[in-house]
Design goal:
- The protein is of the alpha+beta class.
- The chain has one domain: HIT family, subunit A (2-Layer Sandwich), CATH 3.30.428.
- It has 6 helices and 13 strands.
- The strands form 2 sheets. It has a 10-stranded antiparallel beta sheet with strand order 3-4-5-7-6-11-12-10-9-8, with helices on both faces. It has a 3-stranded mixed beta sheet with strand order 1-2-13, with no helix packed on it.
- Strand 1 and strand 2 form a beta hairpin.
- Helix 1 crosses helix 4 and helix 4 crosses helix 6.
- The longest helix is centred in the middle third of the chain and has 16 residues.
- The radius of gyration is 20 Å and the shape is globular.
- 39% of the residues are buried.
């Protein structure tokens, strides 16, 4: 029977309706991504002149900026959604507006022309996540730093080469502010307990939505998963901020994306992002959310804000656990 679930972290409602996967047109299939033309790839090693001047890079031994030899490279977004400074603009009560202040960067995860982090070695993924964290620390003066990865054009990537984007925002987005409130309210009710830490503990005890556990992190199909095969990486010991010293979950992220690639026999389109403690949060815990783009958002999601997931997270977790065993 279909059921409604509330995500413990976000408060969002999802309808889990697994029988809908067998309706006409309801199957989940993924086509392979086309190969990248390296000569026209602005993020490929050797094509540094095709991007704005770099802000940061690692891996180069003594070379000048904007030259080959790097492992991860950071450049300003060529078409930024945010501006580091701008004059004030007039506003009205019903038509409020303000300059979109902040910083918008592109973090090229590797010099190789590949479409997914799953196609890299684990060590390269770890290097990329270390740079994500370093660039987040570079913008601690902003209210919130949001790091995302869009893989493949179906998920919004304008360039297929694996890369992250960093948005250093001058405000805390409403969805993240609501999560901050939920963490704080839970801590008040439970005399200081951490919402995500307790959730992870319960999920590990129940096992039905846990995919795999390593020394530092756990991979879970969330109870209120919004989309089929949604996954979450959370630290086993709670930490407020992803950008602080400690494990980044790089090995688990590589494993999660590799499992999705095994399941669909190619890397699926997906969005992932890092949740870190926003400004003013005393009770929080970082995590990485992974949302494959296997279905379309339609009128229910866009019009009512209620998601419809046609693969129960328990089913997704069981399938991925089975892949782990082989």
């Amino acid at each position: 029977m279909p059921e409604i679930r509330i995500d413990p972290l976000t408060g969002e409602r999802t309808i889990i309706a697994g029988d809908r996967v067998v309706r006409p047109g309801g199957g989940l299939t993924v086509s392979p991504a086309p190969p990248i033309d390296r000569h026209e790839d602005p993020f490929a090693e050797g094509n540094e002149s095709l991007t704005p001047p770099e802000l940061y890079a690692v891996g180069r031994s003594g070379g000048a900026p904007d030259t080959p030899g790097w492992s991860v490279r950071v450049v300003p977004n060529l078409y930024p959604a945010l501006s580091p400074d701008a004059p004030p603009i007039s506003s009205e009560e019903l038509f409020w507006r303000a300059p979109a202040l902040g910083d918008h960067e592109v973090i090229v995860n590797a010099p190789d022309s590949v479409t997914s982090l799953a196609q890299l070695e684990v060590a390269q993924v770890a290097t990329a996540l270390d740079v994500w964290r370093e660039r987040m620390r570079a913008h601690l003066d902003r209210a919130y730093v949001h790091v995302i990865v869009n893989e493949r054009r179906e998920a919004g990537a304008s360039r297929e080469h694996t890369h992250a984007q960093l948005y250093a925002l001058d405000f805390v987005p409403a969805a993240i502010a609501r999560e901050r409130e939920r963490f704080g309210a839970y801590a008040t009710r439970t005399f200081g307990a951490n919402l995500l830490a307790d959730l992870v503990q319960q999920e590990v005890r129940r096992r039905e939505r846990v995919v795999v556990i390593d020394d530092d992190t756990v991979l879970i199909a969330p109870y209120g998963a919004r989309v089929p095969y949604q996954l979450m990486i959370a630290p086993r010991s709670p930490r407020l901020r992803f950008e602080d010293d400690g494990p980044t979950g790089a090995s688990m992220l590589h494993r999660a994306l590799s499992l999705l690639t095994q399941r669909f026999e190619t890397s699926p389109p997906l969005n992932l992002w890092v949740r870190t403690a926003p400004s003013g949060a005393e009770h929080y815990c970082w995590r990485i959310d992974i949302l494959p783009r296997l279905t379309h958002l339609a009128g229910l999601e866009l019009g009512a804000g209620v998601h419809l997931n046609i693969v129960a997270p328990e089913t997704a977790a069981a399938e991925l656990r089975e892949l782990c065993a082989h």
